[in-house]
Amino acid sequence: MADRNILLTSLGHVDPDRLNHRYYYHENNGNLSFCDSITSPEAGAKLILSSVKIDEIIVLGDVDTYDPSEDLLSHILSHYTDYDDPDINDMSEFSFLRYRLSQFRDGLDFETLDIIQTVSGEKEEELQKIADKCLIILLEDEYDVKKFDPYIEKLTYEEIRWVKTRIYQSVNPKKKLRILPENKDVKVTFMPMKRDRNSRLVNIDNLTKDIFEESGKTNLYMDMQGMDSADAYTIINLASVFNSNPHHSLSLKRLITVGRDPRNFFNPILDNMDSYNLSRFTDGITSFIMNGNVDIIRAYWTSRNIRNRRIESLIRGMTYVSGGISLCNIDYLEIGIRILKSVFSTDYDETPDGSHKLEFSLFYCLENIIKADYGALLEGNRVSMYELARWAMRKGFYQQALTIIESRFPDEFVSLGLFYYANDEHSKKNMLYSFEKEYYNTPGTSKWTFNDLSHYFIKYYRKNATRDVKDRSKTTEIYIQLRIDQLYRSPKFNYHMQRAFSLLDDDTELLRTILLGYTYMSSLRNTLNHSLKFQLPEVNADEETVLKEIRDNTETISSLKKEVGKYLDDYEKALSHIQERIEKEGEPVIIKISPDEFREYRGREKNPVQSMHSSRHDHSWREKN
Q1: What does the pLDDT read at residue 286?
Q2: What digits encode the pLDDT tens for the residues 168-216?
Q3: Sheet harboring 31-37: ordered strands across?
Q4: Which pLDDT does position 533 carry in this prediction?
Q5: Which helix (H) or strand (E) holds 61?
Q6: What is the DSSP string of 401-453?
Q7: Which entry of 134, 163, 177, 226 is 20 to 30 Å from 296 by CA?
């Protein structure tokens, strides 16, 4: 289906003098095109109708801009033929716009002829000489409007209008805007806009229905300067919302305004998409910083058609961060942070040419904003899961923060020495042997827990040792105590657990707090992921019920922030304790077992179970206490 192109324009209040022409120019790649108009929407419409095929012009206006008796819907421009001595002063603003655009279609301008016919004889010759002199001034590279003063300061308003008209008539016809042939049958529709502030949502609803009345993609060309600024702002932002969504069927193509400096003879018709895009870029920064959404920034860069490896890497990192947040995928999130760290590790030494200075300046600012917002998360060679969880909580990404803690903290426990299983090859062999026994005693549906041995070691290792505990409310505390006992007791007195190690072994209460807290965080995440049954809220609840639900939700979030915040505070204490110990005693030796290494170990015989049993008779290499 072909795209549908719409020109959305608006009416304000026309000058009572409907012979008061204004003159405009538009610059495109150094080429100037000129037009005249009596209303601002007329100038914008002429530019669009002369440059792109338009299927429909939707005209917005309040009750003062149309006559209730006139038909407002589906006028075909080519059907207008009411040129027989019309009284333009009695026309509504909507009718007058149709009348002027119909003349544009037919290459006519009755109002210009009316002005020219007001002067004749010697007066015409006198004014023509003034018009010629003013034209010479106008053609100067940088003309000064004050140079007109000596020629026109003594003229009447009507005479000045005549001079300006003659100057415009002297412009090369090839330089004047002309309607595209395919636009001569364009449809014109009027949509009343209520001025009551409470009716703005109704206005937007009606407009949205009209724009999307047909399926397929809609390209929107906007000229909103004739209407109330609040309504215009609302509509432009509505278009922004649709335009920022790459999957939506609406695309904002051009945003037109006209200059209104009375000192100039020709005022510009401006295409403000660059300014609009700049505004969208700032919206994109806010969207990424607040919500982790990269769509607007990525769309802006794509629209610029510029290649730059640094900026493309920056957007790639932002895209991974965005995906990590939206999918709650911590791998994506970590990859994104690593890419950003890599980008920021090099100086911004680009020297763009003049045409690209704006884009590079914008992205330079974006980098600084990200650095300031992400802070310590971007420091160091590794991505700190603690800093990542802190960052996620600060941003309000609570589910992501809990997922980071549950899925990634165990690896930090082991890697940083908070609780680990090997400090030499001897203890590594012991743990490989123990892991293998646990693996073959684990049901097949749970063997996935061995995919990450650090995670398995912290959360699942020998958890079946508590299966006979009668008071199930104490299972977690008993299991954590068993794990702490690994630091000191012989495996044969400790349910066959191999010895463990910790840089917190001199502060077991802090270690207990961290391990118990982790178990609680994991439980809290599962509760949020698989919510317990609750009473569905009523759709049409009364005010008291609604306020209670809001209060309950607020308290739930507040409680969640408090619990996670307290755990992260305790974790920070543990990290500080570890760092102090390292500074005194030096870096510990921490040996990890990779999944591939463990897979190779347990598959070293065709019958690993038999190998495991036979090893009972010869395992002198095991630790003996």
Answers
A1: 87
A2: 999 889 999 999 999 989 999 888 876 655 555 555 566 666 665 555 7
A3: 31-37, 22-28, 266-271, 250-258, 218-223, 4-10, 56-61, 187-192, 75-76
A4: 44
A5: strand 56-61
A6: HHHHHHHHHHHHHHHHTSSBS-SSHHHHHHHHHHHHHHHHTS-GGGGGGGGSH
A7: 226
CA distances from 90 to 69, 93, 343 (A): 13, 9, 65
Q: How far is CA 522 from the centre of its chain?
A: 31
Is the pLDDT assigned to residue 576 strictly greater than 70? Answer: yes
Average pLDDT over residues 313-319: 95
Radius of gyration of the chain (CA): 37
* Amino acid identity at 201: L
265 phi/psi in degrees, rounded to 5: -80, -55
CA angle, corner 229, sides to 224 and 230, nearest 5? 115
Chain position carrying tokens 């900026």: 311
Per-residue pLDDT tens digits for 344-369: 998 765 554 444 666 777 888 889 89
Number of helices followed by number of strands (H, E) in the chain: 22, 9
Distance CA 558, CA 345 (A): 37
In contact, 526 and 518? CB cutoff 8 Å: no
Give me the torsion for CA of 264, 269, 273, 279, rounded to 10°. Answer: 40
Say what percent of the chain tops pLDDT 70: 80
- Of 35-39, 357-361, 384-388, 539-543, least confident by mean pLDDT is 539-543
| DSSP string for 318-345 | HHHHHHHHHHT-HHHHHHHHHHHHHHHT
**Tokens representing 2?**
């072909």
Contact 372, 299 (CB under 8 A): no
